[in-house]
Amino acid sequence: MADNHALEASRAITGATQGQDNDGVEERLAAFLSRQPDLGGRIEAITIDGGLRSAGASSGTILFDATIVAGDDRRTRRLVFRYDLGGAFFSQYALAPQFSIMQGLYARGLPVPNALWLDATGEITGKPGLFMNRIDGIAPSTMPFNEGPYMAVDGATRHAMLLEAARTLALVHATPPARLADEYFPQRGGKGHFLDREIAWNLVELRRTIPPAGSDAKADFYRDIRQTLERVADWLTAHAPRQRAPELAHGDANISNFMYGDDGKVAALLDWELSHLGVGEADLAYQIAGIAHFALLAPPIDGIPTPDQMIAAYTQARGKLDDWEFAQVLGEWRLAVFASMGMSRLPPELEDVERTYWTASRKRLAALVPGIGE
């Protein structure tokens, strides 16, 4: 399969959440910012970056520069406005908790964007949104082994950057979740044990996006996806380590959500919309599964750490690796759910990409969960 098919698929998935009708958005941005007492001056101009993003499928993103004047001083603030798309990808999307989580983690010194202001009422786009300082660096991509920061360096540097991503997860998981989103976390996914709630949250999204068997030509294909993923959910429910205390989990720890500084260290871990109370090690498993997913249809490159090397980097930084059998299945399963959801958006001419990725996901799950088969 040609590599450009995979890139086309990536563009189709991310493009589905871009190009929203934002007529007059400059004026609304200026009006909102002008009311913020800590802005540091008056808005002279808003300049929007009109280029399409190469990452991001669950939220809308506006990159812009705000020219601010205070007396004789004129400066430019590089900002990001990230906003709810009204269930375009995740039906249970909640933006306000992301703002709280990011502000709390930034205050604790973790590498997250500095969340500045919350548009809770949807003044800018009609849906809630949040403002952040823009991170300097190469923008991430949903095809990180085709383009983006990992492809701008040599193999040794790439290897070191990916291990840094694993170590950053250890830092997140060692952070107490209290006072980050105390009202949101306990009700995310419904009632019950925090692991049951996380499984339930993912099943809601799966069942909404991958429908019951229909009469079209892909009915058997989607039936296999849904039945397989529901079978894995049953295994997870039966094997959940209920003795665990809940930990802060990022939820979308793909390497495409990391930005790096010139020193190769993680400058920011992005996209906190899937953060939840969970098992931290599942983020690592999700990250490792994502590396395999991204490498599947990418050109061969060197410097990609093995799973054992990623695990070793995480374990050394965290000082533990508990309940790995469960965590590995949970991470693999969550990635398979989200990948299947994203791939279901593809046009008919890219069906081969969708089937290739699902075949690989199914094989990985079959190696971990008895009774799945290949």
Description of the molecule:
The protein has helices spanning 3-15, 25-34, 95-107, 155-173, 194-209, 219-239, 280-296, 307-318, 324-343, 351-366, and strands at 42-49, 60-70, 73-83, 115-119, 129-133, 247-249, 258-260, 266-269, 276-278. The chain has 374 residues and is an alpha+beta fold. The protein has 2 domains: 3-133, Phosphorylase Kinase, domain 1 (2-Layer Sandwich), CATH 3.30.200.20; 149-366, Aminoglycoside phosphotransferase (APH), C-terminal lobe (Aminoglycoside 3'-phosphotransferase, Chain: A, domain 2), CATH 3.90.1200.10. The strands form 3 sheets. A 5-stranded antiparallel β-sheet has the order 1-2-3-5-4, sandwiched between helices. Strands 6-9 form a two-stranded antiparallel ribbon. Strands 7-8 form a two-stranded antiparallel sheet. A hairpin with a 2-residue loop joins strand 2 and strand 3. Helix 4 (155-173) packs across helix 8 (307-318), helix 6 runs antiparallel to helix 9 and helix 9 (324-343) packs antiparallel against helix 10. The longest helix has 21 residues, at 219-239. It is globular, with a radius of gyration of 21 Å.
